[in-house]
Amino acid sequence: MIPVSDPPHTSVGPDTAVDEHRLEELIIEAQTALPVELSSLANRCASALGLDNALIYLADLQQRLLIPLDEALKPLPVDRSSAGWAYRTVSPRVADTDDGLIVWMPLVDGAERLGVLAVRTASLDVVRMRRSRMLAHLFAMLITSKRAYSDWLAARTRTATMLLPAEMLRAFLPPRTVGSRRCVSTAVVEPAYEIAGDAFDHSVVKNVLHTMILDGMGHDLTAGLTTSVAMAAARNARRGGGDLADVVGSVDQALARWLPDQFCTGVLCRLDAEAGLLRWVNCGHPPPLLIRGERVLAGALDSPPQPPIGLAGTLASAARQVHETALEPGDCVLLYTDGVVEARDADGAEFGLDRFTDFIIRSSAAGQRPAEVLRLLIHAILDYQRNQLRDDVTILLFEWHPQFR
Question: What are the distances in angstroms from CA 269 to CA 141, 281, 284, 383, 399?
Fold first, then answer.
């Protein structure tokens, strides 16, 4: 089993010819194909490209397993398989089998890892590698376009029954990872099937990255409703062209009007991805952390306390304070809820802020991508507390890298 970029070049021969008419028919068919039909469609597309067959595997909700869309097959572990290596590193990997080769191609939509595509082929050259990559790109887009309305795809990537508060809140959550050539934002939430009051949001608008983390009061359906209303109000103001102060004000007003007895803490950020200017508002939440050069800049993003969202009208008459600072290339900003540092082991010892930031720094220094850093971190927190979290845990990390790498 070896990681690969592209195999040595070989000339195109008769066995690599493509039936373009057949391929066109399949691409047209893909537009109306049901999600459950994607497995069969992938095989036929592979055949049209001169490959043997193709299998689609999607990451489960907790990113521990790669689950095949073919229900007759068994899941593969993310941490102990060639398929998982391709997923973790977002790089192709080739494995020898008794009847040929398997090319494990990462399925990526934009910046988000979806799973992997297993492409079987009797032999491998630069043409077949390129076609395998093209096939992975095609099915990543197809999966993304169809999962928004497919209960089957949602159910296929679950390994437990989801509670109602989590079901409601997850309907509002964006993809785990978004980004552009200049920045990337990624997030994780646990407990995956019981989350109630925590939420995150991130969006790229032209050259501006908007991020938000919320922690609703309580741990029930009302808590989830509170953060859901907060996210909807923030998006409504953002899409209407409001600046950061307008967005926070809109969320304050929405909660005061519709859920006057509820509130949530949160941090809302706006990053100009061209200039590196970060603006943020902290509403009663743990302050963001700035990591630069493999160390935390203590207090860099601290700010005077402000009331939680939904309480501004009763606790303060002044407008929300917006703070700003200039980032440097490669800077990472961490937003998190208090459940992260307050997670306790069997002896009652907290996971703690130092352990939290040290894990991020060491994983990043080892070359892990932001999404993989958070996947490993959330699993470390779960293992520390033996998978019995006492509070919701949400972490959002965004990174500014103006020089695309």
Answer: 29, 7, 14, 30, 13
